Amino acid sequence: MVPNILITDQTRCYDPLGTVIPCKGSGQDAEFNGGRAISRDRFQIRVDLVFDRQTGLTWCRNANPAEFPLDWKSAHDFINEMNVSQTFGQNKWQLPSRSDLFSLISYNTTSPALPENHPFEDVFPGYYWTRTACNRLPNQAWYIHLGGGRVYRGMKAGSYMVWPVLSPNEETRAEKKIPAWEIRGNTMLDTCTGLMWLFSDIFEQSVTWEVALDTIRTANKEALEGYADWRLPNIRELDSIVDLDSHSPALSLGNDLKIAEGYWSSTTSVYEPRYAWVLYTRDGSVGVGFKGNNDFSCLAVRLAGLIL
């Protein structure tokens, strides 16, 4: 079973014009996650705190304790002040890492892009800092836009919102688990997630989103590498192969692979359903692409087995 953190909550499927269509046979995100919404018992309210059972993180229930946007240094200073004053009885507050904040994003709702029935208060549907700096451009750090869910980098001198988090392992918690690859022919198995990725010449061209979905159908008809259950990855699965300690590309793949500028996901942007989510490989940003443009390539993924 794919880890819950790599399954989105998208419940509908869309054509390239943004019209809702039946999911069966579409090859899209919601067909494979079963249209499963986020569990109502995922979040546990603890007075001024919210515990996330899925990730083990504890968040401020108030998503805007600083009240005003701050630059990156001032954001860290604000967090330090919270620790000195032991806000809500805690002294291990941090800015969330990129993966921490990304784990909250919903692909079924917008403004804010948080799961339906979330328990958080005073959420600003705009830009929020993470503590993760950009590897290629050290004067920039990653932020996430809670209006639609875009993940991008901004100048540290810029001003964004602050949402403190408590991590179960405090400072020792890894920013993100880097894939552990096992090469099998033209496939790479990530033993951390149990996902197998297919790299083939048929995926190298830049295509439209619809052609990307059709290319996966072709891979299944031809049973490439002996499998017929390939699919276009959702945006969380694509993000799972990002290595934020690298750039150009920011992927944890072998240097001998030809890497495209960006890869289509099977996840539609519900903010504007004529667009789909895309992983941009230079730095690892998560944005969108117009479904009708020949702008991005595709990869195929399947669940290969147990997670180690």
Helix share of residues?
10-25%
Main pleated sheet: 4 strands, antiparallel
Please state the overall shape, judged from the principal axes of the Cα atoms: globular
Given as residue ranges, the uncertain stretches (5+ residues, pLDDT < 50) are none
Give the ordered list of helices and strands.
Answer: EEHEEEHHEEEEEEEHHEEEE
Structure annotation, total helices? 5
Structural class of the secondary structure composition?
A: alpha+beta
Radius of gyration: 19 Å
Tell me the total number of β-strands. 16
Distance between the termini: 12 Å
Strand order of the largest sheet: 3-4-5-9
Number of domains: 2
Mean pLDDT: 91
Assess the beta-strand content as a share of residues.
15-25%
Summarize the structure.
With 308 residues, the chain is an alpha+beta fold.
What does this structure look like?
The structure is a single chain. This protein is an alpha+beta fold and 308 residues long. It folds into 2 domains: 4-36 and 177-303, no CATH class; 43-172, Mannose-Binding Protein A, Chain A. The protein contains 5 helices and 16 strands. The protein has a 4-stranded antiparallel beta sheet with strand order 3-4-5-9, with no helix packed on it. Strands 10-11-12-16 form a 4-stranded antiparallel beta sheet, with no helix packed on it. A hairpin with a 5-residue loop joins strand 4 and strand 5. The longest helix has 14 residues, at 72-85. The model has no long low-confidence stretch (mean pLDDT 91).
